[in-house]
Amino acid sequence: MMHHIRGRINNSIKIINEKRLIKAQGQAASQSLLRITVQCLIAMVVLFLIALFIPQVRLLWVTTKLLVQQDLWLLEAFLVLSVPLFVSVRPMSREWRLRDRHMLLVALALVILCYLGHRLLLMGYDLSRDEQMASFDAAIFSHGRLAWPLPPEWQKDAAALNLEFMLPVGQPIAWVSAYLPFNAALRAAVGMIADPALTGPLLTAGSLLLIWSIAKRLWPEDREAPTIAALLLLGSGQFVITGMTAYAMPAHLFFNLLWLRLFLADRRLCDGLALLVGFVATGLHQPLFHPLFVAPFLLLPLFERRWPRFAVFSLGYGAIGIFWLSWPIFIHSLVAGPASITAAAGTDYLSRLLQVFSLTIANPTLTAANMLRFCTWQHLFLLPLMAVGFRAVREDRFAAAVAASFLLPIFVMAIILPYQGIGFGYRYLHGVLGNGVLLALFGWKKLTARHEELRPVVLRATAASLLILLPIQAWMAHARYAPFAHASARISQSGADYFLIKATAGPLTHDLVLNQPNLSNRPIRLALENIEDTQLLARRICRRGITIALGTDAFYAPTWAYFGNKPELLASTDLYTIRAPFEKAGCQVQLISQ
């Protein structure tokens, strides 16, 4: 592994020393940018080496697996592709100037691509609990409810229905996720007129148009900067593939960019609209991400001594924070009943935040892995331009705010929640992808005198990102979703009334315990380990003609195979003990192999 990486770096250094580089009058500047590119590659290798020291504990094994299965291969692709971008380049004098109507067509194509990607690439499946909870809550909101009442007979056994990422209430009388509502509300709104799965693609396309508009607002005399911004965002696998999912991250990016566009307008009406956007953005799914994005920009009126504007935003966000921090307590009143038990972590966000807060050896290693994933899922030339763009921080207050807004979530999440689980790139930075592009544009503007030599480099990098990296990343995404989507489909097609899912039967199979809020799905999926009293449950649900299904080792084998693990054959362990209470109570038990 390290032999290959060392070879790639040596090859990069060899190419730098050869005479096949740009031979225009700006060769020194071009070689300087090439050195920055190689330094970025070396930094990515260092991140990989640090990530190798992630503690080998069960909770973190997914990060380690993805580090080897995805990040290492994408890192090698970056090492192979980056330096040749500068080789034998002919200067290009003509500027790139896409018109507004062209961008609208590109945005429409992006909507179609992301929607087809969700249906075909991701097989229309919500893999993670974050995605599942967005669809779950959207189903509740689409019926005009804030929480869905649980039938009395299921309230005591609610844990078996999977309460992970729900409000921390045992034996609830209703259920809804612990997330704030607006991401799911957006999906419910889109679902009133179209497929809810269009929500992510529409928000992703909207983000592309907004970064285009922001670039035009920041550099009105430069008609090329918006085009560069669009290319950098389109070449990001994180941007495109996350747009295919039900994650809240496309919404975070869209509303952050919309807020920034209104803030830059610097008019009273736009400031009022920005506060309204901030209210929605803070309430998308977690109350932390948008405030982290917006905080550095709110300091600009303070430094400019524009006290009324600073006061309006400060008071406005104070009210927004109080409202959304109170939201879980309000929802708790709808979910908890007389027999309910609130978890020790508490319902409010402060209690839950204190529970996850920790500083261990895992924090820097997981953060290194997260940052490596961020780097390897971006446009091939984003990082070098960002590195140049950071130089503008000392000269431009707005650039400093953009940089601080980008860096703040890295430091905060490294402390409170370094484990991101499943995602494309680094999910917790998705809302500030626009910041990364803007920093890259600051770098592009600093290199104005060398644009003729750099245009073909950016063009090559865009072609490599779209034609090589993005297909590889799409294949990785499909391979990740497929075994679980097939398993879920097989459960739905089993014809059983109930399906018992054993968390230890396969990797991450607990997420297969996914039910509709009204429990209209068949079979109803039950988490075996969360059944409090198996015999009592069996007596309640079993009668003649009721079928209980369980997956065999063969059923879960594809999930083990994806992670490169030898099947642990745990599905069949204690099989007789598991099925006996149900058969005794009158249920028919069937085993599902494939």
Give a structural overview.
The chain is mainly α and 594 residues long. The chain is built from 23 helices and 8 strands. It has a 4-stranded parallel beta sheet. Helix 2 (27-51) packs across helix 16. The protein is globular. The model is unreliable at 19-26 (pLDDT under 50).
Concise account of the structure shown:
The protein has 23 helices and eight strands. It has 594 residues and is mainly alpha-helical.
Poorly predicted spans = 19-26
Form type: globular
C-alpha Rg, in Å? 26 Å
Largest sheet features = 4 strands, parallel
Q: In terms of structural class, how would the helical and strand content be classed? A: mainly alpha
| Average pLDDT | 89
Question: What are the key terms here?
Answer:
four-stranded parallel beta sheet, two-stranded antiparallel ribbon, mainly alpha, 594 residues
Write the layout of secondary structure elements.
Blueprint: H1 2-17, H2 27-51, H3 61-81, H4 100-121, H5 129-141, E1 148-149, H6 152-155, E2 169-170, E3 174-175, H7 182-191, H8 199-218, H9 225-234, H10 237-242, H11 249-265, H12 268-282, H13 289-303, H14 307-335, E4 341-342, H15 349-356, H16 362-376, H17 382-389, H18 397-416, H19 433-446, H20 451-492, E5 498-501, E6 524-527, H21 534-541, E7 547-551, H22 553-562, H23 575-584, E8 588-592
Parallel strand pairs: 5-6, 5-7, 7-8
Antiparallel strand pairs: 1-3, 2-4
